[in-house]
Specification:
2 copies of one chain form a homodimer. The first copy, chain A, is built from 12 helices and no strands. In chain A, helix 5 (85-100) packs parallel to helix 9. The longest helix of chain A has 30 residues, at 49-78. With 220 residues, chain A is mainly alpha-helical. Chains A and B meet through helix 8, helix 9, helix 10, helix 11 and helix 12 of A and helix 8, helix 9, helix 10, helix 11 and helix 12 of B. The structure holds a DNA duplex (30 and 30 nucleotides). Chains A, B: GO terms for molecular function: DNA-binding transcription factor activity; transcription cis-regulatory region binding.
DNA sequence: GATAGTTTCATACAAGTGTTTGAAATGCAA
DNA sequence: TTGCATTTCAAACACTTGTATGAAACTATC
């Protein structure tokens, strides 16, 4: 393999264009024009358009997942195999939020790309996301160890809600800013992380009889 | 206007196909074949493909919004202009969840269509969703009246998280079922509603010093 | 039952898509 | 240099897409 020049030029151009304009209206011709390479180069180097998109997404998401697991492992080792639930949740939602939020003008191309991927959900990306379950199971396991009294159902719901808050906040960050007339500050990412972690922790630790709603569920 | 037959056949066929196969790979030709009408009928009756999609989505979402506001208004009138926060949240997420979850084999076409719309987010639908802010403001107002001691920021974050949990649970219902190996039961919709309402209520009412994470946020 | 307005239909159009092809250029080893 | 594999390139291919057209069929009114 000579120098990868064409290959990485395509990857960079594609990520930039998808980040800026979404998957919907970026064609291979747009990408090769931006990269300054020939149209056939995409199929030569990647096989197909979908495989190009998949490679972009896989690269970024394994980076995020590695970061998540690194934080999780560090926390569990520090706690002798059992980490506080807040720390686990922070390892779960922190990397994603840090990767996608922050001052808009200094958001990396990678971050903007991942936001697009989260909003538009194109087939090759959906396929990859479906394989993420094993990764989530590791977090479910850590949460179970952290909260041995909680039922599996409660653990899964807590996990689900934590991801919900993080992803939805990313997806709808523009709308939240507009709705709150700028009062909700999404540029201080660590504050957002703490808000999400805080609520998810409450969801997971609240006594079953603390609220009418919760007890109603638990009583079934 | 004669009999609307063609027009409503197109609407029904389109909704069914979009619900089953998503927006990505349903063409006008698929729709007219399913509806048993001529290809040109779509442009004659709706102007364009996008306007057809928009009409489908608008119809369904104003129905949901009307139901939400009906519940909200009833609650506020019963409480003399101030409703309990749980009831407000239930009015916010209840209609959507009831419309989109429930036993899979008895989910209406409309429900499956709305799930698709929530997952795929195609341009004409995104445009409509952007106009939903005014509608959400009404809920923000009711929540402020219900919790006069809470800051606007907290209110908006609570609203955001409530919607996050509802929508994410709908979008990822399949994954949650798989992840939890069926332990999280999404068929009993009212239980799901109560879980979401319960967590959102905690998020909105928890004392600022109840958890370390929350106090950290409030201290800024 | 003729007429005007609406609706349907087969067909064509224009444009854009990802992909393939086969030859030309390039790089590299012997 | 020669020979071989890799990479680039322009061009064409094969299709699909949404939309437009103009004639035909229909419907209701007078």
């Amino acid at each position: 393999m000579a120098s990868d020049h064409t290959r990485s030029a395509i990857l960079a151009a594609a990520e930039r264009l998808y980040a800026d304009r979404g998957f919907g209206d970026v064609t291979l011709r747009d990408i090769v024009a931006e990269a300054g390479v020939n149209l056939a180069a995409v199929n030569y180097h990647f096989g197909s358009k979908d495989e190009l998109i998949a490679e972009l997404f896989v690269t970024r998401s394994i980076a995020t997942n590695r970061e998540r697991l690194r934080e999780l492992k560090a926390a569990e080792e520090a706690g002798g195999g059992r980490a506080p639930i807040e720390v686990i949740l922070r390892a779960l939602v922190g990397p994603t939020l840090r990767g996608c939020l922050g001052p808009e003008n200094q958001r990396s191309t990678a971050a903007r790309f991942m936001i697009r991927a989260s909003i538009e959900s194109v087939p090759p990306i959906r396929r990859i996301k479906n394989r993420e379950i094993d990764h989530l199971r590791k977090f479910a396991g850590a949460m179970r160890r952290s909260l041995p009294d909680r039922s599996d159902v409660d653990i899964y719901w807590g996990l689900n809600f934590a991801l919900a808050m993080a992803h939805h906040t990313i997806r709808e960050s523009e709308r939240l800013t507009k709705l709150s007339e700028g009062k909700c500050d999404l540029d201080h990412v660590e504050d957002v992380v703490e808000r999400v972690v805080s609520v998810a922790t409450m969801a997971l630790t609240a006594g079953r009889t603390e609220t009418k709603a919760a007890s109603k569920v638990a009583a079934r």
